[in-house]
Write a structure and sequence with these properties.
The complex is a heterodimer of chains A (906) and B (1059). A 6-stranded parallel sheet of chain A has the order 8-17-16-9-15-10. In chain A, strands 21-22-23-24-25-26 form a 6-stranded mixed sheet, with helices on both faces. Chain A is an alpha/beta fold. Chain A has 35 helices and 26 strands. In chain A, β18 and β19 form a beta hairpin. With 1059 residues, chain B is of the alpha/beta class. Chain B is built from 39 helices and 26 strands. Chain B is globular. The relative contact order of chain B is 0.08. The chains are: A alpha/beta (906), B alpha/beta (1059). Iron/sulfur cluster binds next to α26, α33 and α34 of chain A.
């Protein structure tokens, strides 16, 4: 056949293939033949898939006097939109999960209906699913008819009647190459061609006598790796006849289910062909190509373009906004990389999970915000453009323009020089926008959200792969392998479940109808026949053929496909693989690890205050934690959460109580106050607390939720005041007061929630909204040193320390005092029930103990003590953000000794 | 033969092969039920019209694969091998033979199309149903499966809570009520709703009941009365008590005898005898805890809100699923149920599949959930005895241990009693044990009759013990109990190691093989002291799904790298990267890099004044790391995230830093996982990703397969070992979470519901009442868990527990909820060893051994140099360019499309040698041209302008003498001439617009539809010539006419350049 093609255009031969891949591969083969004959240039052979031939003939008609009458075929996106419209017009739409995927399925069924000439007649469609399809397809068909449109499923039937027209250029000879399935529609079309004088010839690749082996490998991963090593070993073997001396052989690898394992295949082959490809400076030239591609929306550049459009909508999630801020595809991304990251980290503490562009821009304007001026300037302009350019219903072409403008404002695609793949991706994106614009022919005007969703799903549907160079190794799916020939072929994954392919009838068309029409996928026996033919095709299309199957998948044992089981199994050794080392192994085997002692950081240079009492808390819990958090500022990035988190809610309660006691001052006043006055006072206090909170968390504390929070604060405070009312007389003498204290040479700010003057002295009080125990002040390395620090730091006469538990239904004091009965719930140390209290005789003893511990803790921090020593093992580490930094799991592997949860026998 | 004689249940096994009847089979541990299922399957094959008519449902994919494998093995044996002599094997052979005959007669080709054998999990079955019924299942098209949908549950919960702000919507009011009830704790509300969604299949069913206040309160009254009647029945006749109907009186009455904790008050002579009666105490305690007869106003308000919100939450979840195009298995099950149709209008599967399911086999039926049960009911609806359709369910209620996955053992008991739907099931009970030696079987028989409840109780999930008979004879002492005291986990760990060592010294079952040993625990943390002790003793072990992947140092390092790569301001991650072994900076060197909080660590690393403050060694390390990271950051988002992270890891020497090969495998698991989650080279939600890593397990050690296995009892289900060691018997199970609402169904199947306790309130009696029922069920399951553990053993069983003693040295009863408590009656005497209470330790032992607290493990970089393995040798051709770069310019879509249409027309006109083509004729083609432009994608609004341009270009050409010459008759003329040529080693396909010969010789012409506004046309054209010279050069060479004249024609400009 290639010989006849070589006669050039005069011979008027056209070759039709079942898919594009085969057309390309025949084209390459033809080129190789020409080059092997020493030619530098030749007339291009006319080889194309069936669909392309039909489209070409249709175009011929379009440029002839038939033009005015020709229906226009829809683009894929237009088809999709019309199907969705058809579905939405029916009662099914409401209950369906989502119309988009259903429409996509319908398009497949619609192809089948025409390719196999199935009659859409209600009598043959007795079940509900089929009836729904009947309904939808009726609507779809009418909609396209009204607009004089057609689609790829019907195009052959549109063109066939006009084949006689001279403008439609028909070949003298039409070769059908490698067609495993000829549908009735194709057959009719060919007959029509024949009637117009084209000679129709069926051709198949010449059968080779192959050396066929079957190997079993551990699992899918092992299969891919072994196939890659095999391909590498074959790369240097001589090519078959006709491929030209010095050229590499053609190697094929067939991977069923390639779509889901594509990334792994790509990687394994790259690792084997060029072990250092991931660390090589410039992108490596690799001798293989994996067919199929990824969805366009999965390409980072396109994904980020979509995010920019997202950001320009009414509101978007913070995570999306954050990705835009960190995107390399926005102008000045390189110059501002660090400052944008800092800005992002700063915003994380202040934003809600769903944000409006305007309020983000406003937040960035704060004098405390890290500067990223180019970014902020662009976001500001984007916010302005949003108001003018992204409102109201518009036709798709207007949206396409508006989206382009939004991207232009954002400085898309950034300053970094594009590489070849990115260039092609950008092109594809522009094409997509252009195709999107043409949607207006079927959809009319749409709002911003509809437009954005449509564009997004188009990007998701569009499978794209940047073009690569000509390579000797082709990795492909089953269907693409049909008809190609190779020097060496490997087909993997041939388990009994995967091959023959399970018969899968189309769900929208009655199975009986499909069987009657002879659709192979609809019937196990005919599907088996087809797959048997394909298997046979493999065994004759190369000189060497290897079939492989995995033994295991996860924990399940698998069997070889019955279609290859009769081939004797060969050991892997028979494949004659070259020895080969992975980069990982090379690095690992050369590695030398040393262990040094490094638990002590340099001493602290004391200049200013080192922060709050939390420093002592950290140091006591785990020295490394204090080192990390207090000296290296190792704080976690926050994740915006809806509503308020525990800490925010605690802060609110603190603010509330502060407001209340700022107003009340003494118990006398509290007791004297009437119900109504108190209610009013509490309301005002809650207003104040919430207003303060809003300064940092405006988004999180709004609307109805804020009202509920207001009510809660009033309720809590009211409940709490009952406790205060039940006490002896006191006066609140300090609220939220800061005070410098020094222990072990380390000075920090101790912040006190409240101090009361009692008859005999003062009580320091800490509001708690969560769990708390007096034991947290006692023993070595106290868990909650704050109150002791404050009590020791004040020279006033402190006679009690207490937690004020402000919790719904649990309002009470907990604490210890010098003498009994100062405050309800606060006891002397000998009455304290925590086991740790046993070590103290009396109040003075407690106070002395505090001083010893705090001095030691401060000294340890100051000296740079930074050992990894979590006080209570797992429990201490549980809420600590540092484990990846401190490497605790390396020091206490596999739970060894980490069981010690500090629980004490009762 | 001898053995066969000892099989006590041959009759039952034979009955089970009667393919005309439906059965429910109780098959205790070791009874060989898989074999029975296979025989039944083969028997059924011999009688159906299509193999697809039989559906076998297994619990796991692994079980399905195994069953399929064995069926095929049987078919192969029957095809290729002679009939075996042994009775049992011969029976299988006969059945397989009959199946083959059927296959051959009806042309199934079963042996070649394995898929026709429908052996699958229930999930797979549901998916096959929904796939074929896209509309009835309401999916539209099959979504992808997501195994762990917890983040979707949370998303749906958030969506629901957000309706709070949609003023006026009824949901808003309900959300407000709920939040208020929960102290406005949105995070807790979110979590509760998410948890609720995870089990929606249970309550969606419940909520179809009548949930109005009156009927619920009627049930409440019924429950109250029942409790009183139970106490009344036990109450000593001699003593006074209130009337039966006076529930509140009884509550007060009970409180006079019991303390608030439900213990007897001080003895008095009158009550002393009564106080021996534990059943009475328990009944009184129940009475004392009874809720009020009516819901309080608040309770009812919040319950109402929850009941309205629950289905809304499920609806939000569907939206979330649709948004992501994925759904969990439960959603598939619900969809499959929908697809099967309501009871009164079932879907006719014949129309969907072209065959009907006529026989169903279900394995592990004891772990069926409500929705699965419902599915079976619908699949078999209308089946009747003797109509040729059968159901065959096999399981062992004594091994039902999957409550946490919604398994409901009551369903087995119910099916045993009532059948399933319209199908009545004949019960069969197997009793032969082919697994364990008689010593074990006898001990299990004796013990579990006491561990398990004496009486069956369907609603309480209580399963009675059913004994087995050992087929294997006794072989030495089978069961050993090892007592420990007062929290001696260390001692337990050491004992496990001792037992393992002694056992491994014994001969195995097969010569040359070690005996298999498993350490089974209820909870992973019970292994915390075991693994280190085994390691110390030098015993190799595999910990199967025990350790969280996220805790492995190698994985943490990769995670640090991932986070650092994603966010330059993630300080912890960056510092971790610097501290990790590949960089290994000391604390002293970290200080200068981390001190300034206004710089990112990455900025500090690039600041030479800061770098100068490091030690020399630190500087070298930091700079080396900086170089690697600078390279990957510069190329960020070009490769996949996985490749970027792995690339940096390799370049830094990550693989050199790991401790074992397992770490490398774990690293791979992590990277694979990263790849499966990443989107477009980045992560959508880092927190979710980190949580998902926590849920993965590190690989078991890569030791030999016959080393000691460590696993949970759940994981061991279906496995067997020579020796089984069960430590940690005194440990608790998992934690029990609060739920938004609880319900119970009374034996009369009326419903009782309770909302969660309001924030801060003490336990509400109604909620606690139902919770207690749940706890009872959990208690029963604990007993069954113990049964599963004990019956894994073939030869020896070691039970290790820990009891507390009081100050007098007396052993205390183990706390409730532990396995030891369940077993206490049996092993109490083993714990009666003299001893004293161990005093508690003074100071807690340091969690990290002091010697390791300050260690830094790091790469000795200079000594770790390696050679890069060679790349495959091949001659790469130059990179193919996507197209001729000069064509690349983005001239605007419409202009480009106008260009292509003009080209196509010029071709057509030239084909006609321009005969008869005039401006008016062109103008008449307006409609066609518009059509063509549309087809090329020109949008509506631009059509008029674009078509005018096309016409303009064509007409101008026709009017231009040069155009007439060009398109007119010429010799050897070719239009759109396609040639291929090898240029710079690469094949290119070229299209020459026009080629001909005239007196001047050969011409090669290209059309350019460029336009030009303004003056100086000549200069523009000169520029164009310059630009396109190389292109035409190539054309001329490729066409083999290097001497040809070249021409550029500009139709819109009537411009011409030639050379
Ligand atoms: S994770 Fe644990 S060991 Fe590490 S710093 Fe935090 S508390 Fe210390």
């Amino acid at each position: 056949m290639l010989e006849r093609l070589a006669q050039g255009h005069e011979a008027r031969i056209t070759v039709v293939t079942p898919n594009r891949r085969l057309a390309q591969s025949l084209g390459s083969e033809f080129a190789a033949l020409q080059r092997s004959r020493g030619r530098e240039a030749w007339e291009t052979a006319d080889i194309l898939p069936f669909g392309a031939l039909v489209a070409r003939l249709w175009e011929d008609a379009l440029y002839s006097d038939l033009a005015a009458g020709m229906a226009l075929p829809l683009t894929a996106a237009q088809e999709q939109a019309l199907w969705e419209e058809a579905i939405h017009a029916t009662r099914y739409a409401e209950s369906l999960f989502s119309a988009g995927p259903a429409a996509a399925r319908c398009r497949q069924s619609w192809q089948l209906v025409h390719a196999w000439r199935l009659s859409l007649d209600a009598a043959g469609f007795p079940n509900e699913d089929a009836r729904a399809f009947l309904d939808w397809s009726g609507r779809y068909e009418r909609a396209t008819r009204a607009r004089r449109q057609t689609d790829s499923a019907r195009l052959p039937d549109v063109v066939a009647p006009h084949l006689g027209h001279a403008a439609l250029r028909k070949p003298a000879t039409l070769v059908l190459f490698g067609m495993d399935i000829v549908t009735p529609q194709m057959r009719d079309f060919m007959e029509a061609m024949a009637a117009q004088g084209s000679e129709i010839v069926q051709a198949a690749p010449p059968a080779l006598r192959a050396d066929v082996k079957r190997v079993e490998l551990t699992d899918a991963k092992d299969e891919i790796e072994t196939a890659a090593r095999w391909a590498r070993s074959r790369l240097s073997s001589p090519p078959g006849e006709g491929r030209g001396e010095g050229n590499p052989p053609r190697i094929g690898v067939v991977v069923p289910d390639l779509a889901s394992s594509r990334a792994r295949v790509q990687r394994s082959f790259a690792n084997v062909m060029r072990p250092d490809h991931l660390i090589a400076g410039e992108p490596a030239a690799l001798p293989f190509n994996v067919s199929l591609g990824a969805a366009l929306s999965d390409y980072p550049m396109v994904a980020d373009a979509l995010l920019v459009i997202d950001l320009a909508s009414h509101e978007s999630t913070f995570e999306h906004a954050s990705r835009v801020m960190r995107s390399p595809f926005i102008a000045a991304a390189e110059a501002e990389m660090d400052s944008r990251a800092r800005l992002d980290a700063w915003l994380r503490k202040r934003c809600a999970p769903v944000v409006k562009l305007e309020s983000m821009v406003a937040a960035c304007g704060s004098p405390h915000a890290p500067r990223a001026s180019s970014l902020v300037e662009r976001m500001t302009r984007l916010a302005e453009f949003r108001k003018s350019g992204l409102f109201g219903p518009k036709p798709a072409s207007e949206w396409a323009k508006a989206f382009s403008e939004a991207l232009r404002i954002a400085g898309f695609p950034g300053d970094r020089a594009l590489d070849s793949a990115e260039h092609q991706t950008l092109d594809k994106w522009h094409e997509l926008l252009a195709e999107f614009a043409t949607l207006e022919r079927v959809t009319g005007r749409m709002g911003f959200n509809a437009a954005r969703e449509r564009l997004r799903s188009m990007a998701h549907e569009k499978i794209f792969q940047p073009e690569a160079r000509d390579v000797p190794i082709q990795v492909m799916g089953i269907l693409e392998s049909a008809g190609q020939d190779f020097d060496h072929l490997w087909v993997m994954g041939l388990t009994d479940e995967a091959w023959p392919l399970p018969a899968r009838a189309d769900p929208f068309i009655p199975v009986r109808l499909q069987r009657a029409a002879g659709i192979p996928q609809a019937d196990p026996v005919s599907s088996l026949e087809l797959d048997r033919r394909i298997t046979h095709g493999w065994t004759t299309c190369a000189r060497e053929v290897v079939f492989s199957h995995p033994r295991m998948c996860k924990e399940s044992e698998l069997s070889p496909s019955p279609l290859i089981a009769s081939i004797a199994q060969s050991p892997v050794g028979d494949l004659e693989l070259e020895g080969f080392t992975t980069l990982r192994e090379a690095i690992r085997s050369a590695g030398v690890v040393e262990t040094i002692e490094d638990g002590q950081a340099p001493a602290v240079e004391i200049t200013t205050r080192a922060g709050g009492t939390g420093l002592f808390k950290d140091q006591a819990a785990c020295p490394f934690r204090a080192f990390a958090a207090r000296r290296l500022e190792a704080q976690p990035l926050e994740t915006p959460r809806p509503g308020l988190d525990l800490r925010d809610r605690g802060t609110l309660v603190h603010e509330m109580m502060k407001a209340v006691w700022t107003r009340l001052e003494t118990r006398d006043r509290l007791v004297a106050m009437g119900h109504e006055d108190l209610d009013q006072l509490l309301g005002a206090c809650a207003d104040e607390a919430i207003a303060r909170m809003r300064r940092t968390r405006a988004d999180a504390l709004a609307g109805r939720y804020a009202q509920l929070e207001h009510a809660r604060l009033v309720r809590l405070a009211d409940e709490w005041l009952d406790v205060d009312r039940g006490r002896d007389d006191f006066e609140v003498v300090a609220l939220e007061e800061k005070h410098a204290v020094t222990f072990g040479g380390i000075t920090v700010d101790a912040k006190l929630d409240r101090m009361d003057r009692l008859a005999t002295g003062r009580a320091v009080i800490d509001y708690k909204t969560g769990e708390c125990k007096t034991a947290a002040w006692m023993g070595r390395r106290p868990d909650e040193p704050q109150l002791p620090m404050y009590a020791l730091g004040r020279n006033e006469d402190v006679v009690a320390v207490a937690f004020a538990v402000v919790k719904t239904g649990e309002a009470k004091f907990k604490g210890i005092s010098r003498v009994a009965n100062l405050i309800p719930g606060v006891t002397t140390i000998d009455k304290d029930r925590s086991p740790a209290a046993k070590r103290y005789r009396d109040w003075e003893d407690v106070v002395a103990g505090w001083r010893v511990e705090l001095e030691a803790t401060g000294r340890a921090f100051g000296q740079g003590e930074a050992r990894v020593d979590p006080k209570r093992g797992k429990d201490t580490c549980k809420n600590c953000p540092q484990p990846m930094f401190c490497r605790v799991s390396e020091k206490a592997p596999f739970g060894a000794a980490l069981d010690n949860d500090g629980s004490v026998d009762e | 033969m001898n053995e066969r004689a000892r099989v006590p249940d041959l009759d039952e096994r034979e009955l089970a092969l009667d393919t005309s009847r439906s059965y429910i089979v109780q098959a205790p541990a070791g009874s060989g039920k898989t074999e029975l299922l296979i025989q039944r399957f083969l028997a059924l094959l011999g009688g159906v019209d299509r193999p697809e008519e039989i559906a076998a449902i297994t619990f796991t994919i692994k079980a399905a694969a195994e069953m399929r494998l064995r069926v095929f093995a049987a078919l192969r044996a029957a095809r290729n091998e002679p009939r075996p002599d042994a009775l049992h094997e011969a029976r299988t052979w006969d059945l397989a033979r009959a199946a083959l005959e059927r296959n051959d007669a009806l042309g199934w080709k079963l042996e070649e199309s394995a898929d026709r054998l429908r052996v699958q999990t229930i999930d797979a079955l549901c998916m096959s149903l929904t796939r074929q019924m896209p509309v009835l299942s309401e999916f539209g098209a099959q979504p992808d499966v997501i195994e762990d949908a917890s983040m979707f549950f949370a998303e749906a919960a958030r969506d629901l809570l957000e309706t709070l702000e949609e003023a006026g919507k009824p949901d808003a009011a309900d959300v407000a009520i709920l939040l208020e009830h929960l102290d406005n704790d949105a995070a807790q509300a979110e979590q509760l709703i998410a948890t609720m969604l995870a089990q929606r299949d249970r309550w969606l069913r419940i909520l179809r009941h009548n949930c109005d206040r009156a009927s619920l309160e009627a049930t409440l009254e019924e429950v109250r009365r029942a409790a009183v009647l139970e106490a009344r029945a036990l109450w000593p006749e001699a003593l006074p008590c209130p009337d039966d109907g006076d529930v509140d009186g009884w509550i007060a009455h009970a409180a006079t005898f019991l303390t608030a904790k439900g213990e007897w008050r001080k003895r008095s002579s009158a009550t002393a005898p009564m106080q021996e009666d534990e059943a009475l105490r328990s009944a009184l305690s129940t009475v004392m805890g009874l809720p009020a007869a009516r819901y309080s106003q608040d309770q009812w308000e919040v319950l109402g809100a929850i009941l309205r919100l629950a289905p809304r939450a499920a609806a939000h979840l569907r939206v979330v699923f649709a948004r992501h195009g994925r759904a969990d298995f439960m959603e598939f099950a619900l969809a499959a149920l929908r697809a099967l149709g309501a009871d009164d209008a079932p879907t006719d599967l014949m129309l969907v599949f072209d065959y009907r399911i006529r026989h169903i086999l279900v394995d592990e039926f004891q772990d069926t959930s409500h929705s699965q049960f419902e599915l079976l009911r619908r699949l078999t609806s209308g089946w009747e005895a003797g109509d040729g359709r059968t159901l065959f369910v096999v399981g062992d209620p004594m091994q039902s241990i999957y409550r946490f996955r919604e398994a409901e053992v009551a369903l087995f008991l119910q099916a045993w009693r009532d059948g399933i739907g319209t199908v009545s099931l004949a019960p069969l009970r197997l009793s032969a044990n082919f697994r364990s030696q008689a010593g074990i079987v006898d001990w299990v028989n004796a013990s579990f009759a006491r561990v398990m409840p004496r009486a069956e109780d369907i609603d309480g999930g209580a399963v009675k013990y059913s004994p087995s008979h050992a087929v294997h004879p006794a072989a030495g002492k089978a069961v050993h109990v090892h007592p420990f005291f007062d929290g001696d986990a260390l001692g337990e760990g050491r004992r496990v190691a001792e037992i393992a060592r002694e056992t491994l010294a014994e001969p195995g079952r097969d010569p040359g093989k070690l005996p298999s040993v498993a350490v089974l625990v209820r909870n992973r943390r019970h292994l915390d002291e075991v693994a280190p002790r085994l390691r110390e003793a030098g015993i190799k072990f595999r910990a199967v799904e025990i350790e969280s992947l996220g805790h492995r140092p190698a994985v943490r390092d990769l995670l640090a790298l991932t986070r650092a790569f994603l966010h330059p301001a993630d300080r912890i991650a960056w510092l971790a990267v610097l501290r990790a072994p590949w960089c290994g900076l000391t604390l002293a060197d970290l200080v200068p890099l981390g001190t300034d909080r206004n710089l990112t660590v990455w900025e500090a690393m690039r600041d030479e004044t800061i770098i100068a403050r490091l030690t020399e060694d630190g500087r070298r390390r930091a700079v080396r790391t900086r170089e690697v990271l600078a390279r990957s950051l510069a190329a960020r988002r070009r490769a996949s995230l996985r490749d970027s992270v792995e690339g940096a890891w390799l370049a830094l020497g990550g693989p050199a830093c790991v401790e074992s090969d397992t770490d490398i495998a774990d690293a791979e698991t992590y990277l694979d996982h990263l790849e499966s989650i990443e989107e477009a080279g980045t992560l959508g939600d880092l927190a979710n990703f980190e949580a998902s890593v926590e849920k993965l397990y590190a690989l078991p050690g890569l030791g030999s397969p016959d080393c000691v296995q460590l696993m949970t009892i759940h994981k061991a289900k279906g496995l067997e070992f020579d020796t089984v060691i069960v430590p940690g018997l005194a440990g608790g199970g998992g934690k029990d979470d609060r739920e938004l609402f609880l319900w119970m169904e009374t034996p009369g199947s009326s419903l009782l519901l309770a909302p969660i306790n309001p924030a801060g309130s003490s336990k509400e009696p109604l909620y606690e009442l139902i919770r207690r029922l749940d706890k009872t069920k959990a208690g029963h399951e604990a007993g069954r868990l113990l049964y599963v553990a004990a019956t894994r053993a073939r030869r020896r069983l070691h039970l290790i527990g820990d009891a507390k003693r009081d100050d007098d040295g007396a052993v205390k009863e183990p706390s409730s909820g532990t396995l030891l408590r369940k077993l206490w009656d049996v092993v109490r005497d083993d714990f009666a060893v003299p001893g004293e209470r161990r005093r508690q330790r003074g100071e807690a032992r340091a969690a990290v051994p002091p010697a390791r607290q300050g260690l830094l493990r790091r790469l000795a970089i200079e000594r770790s140099a390696y050679a890069i393995p060679a790349a495959a040798a091949w001659n790469a051709p130059p990179e193919a360019r996507a197209r001729d770069e000069i064509e690349f310019s983005w001239v605007g879509d419409t202009a480009r499309r106008v260009g292509s249409v003009v080209h196509r027309w010029l071709q057509r006109i030239a084909d006609d040698e321009a005969k008869g083509w005039t401006r008016p004729r062109i103008e008449r083609e307006l409609a066609a041209i518009m059509n063509e432009l549309s087809a090329r994608g020109v949008v509506e609004g631009e059509l008029a302008k674009a078509s005018a341009r096309v016409i303009d270009a064509l007409a101008k050409t026709l009017e231009d003498p040069r155009g007439q010459w060009l398109l007119g008759p010429q010799t050897h003329a070719r239009n759109e001439y396609r040639i291929s040529a090898v240029i710079d080693g690469v094949r290119r396909d070229l299209v020459i617009d026009r080629m001909f010969e005239d007196l001047a010789g050969a011409w090669i012409v290209d059309y350019k539809t460029s336009s030009h506004e303004g003056a100086d046309l000549e200069r523009f054209l000169a520029g164009e010539e310059e630009r396109y010279r190389p292109q035409l050069e190539r054309y001329a060479n490729a066409a083999g006419k290097p001497g040809a004249r070249r021409g550029l024609y500009f139709p819109l400009l009537k411009g011409w350049r030639e050379w």
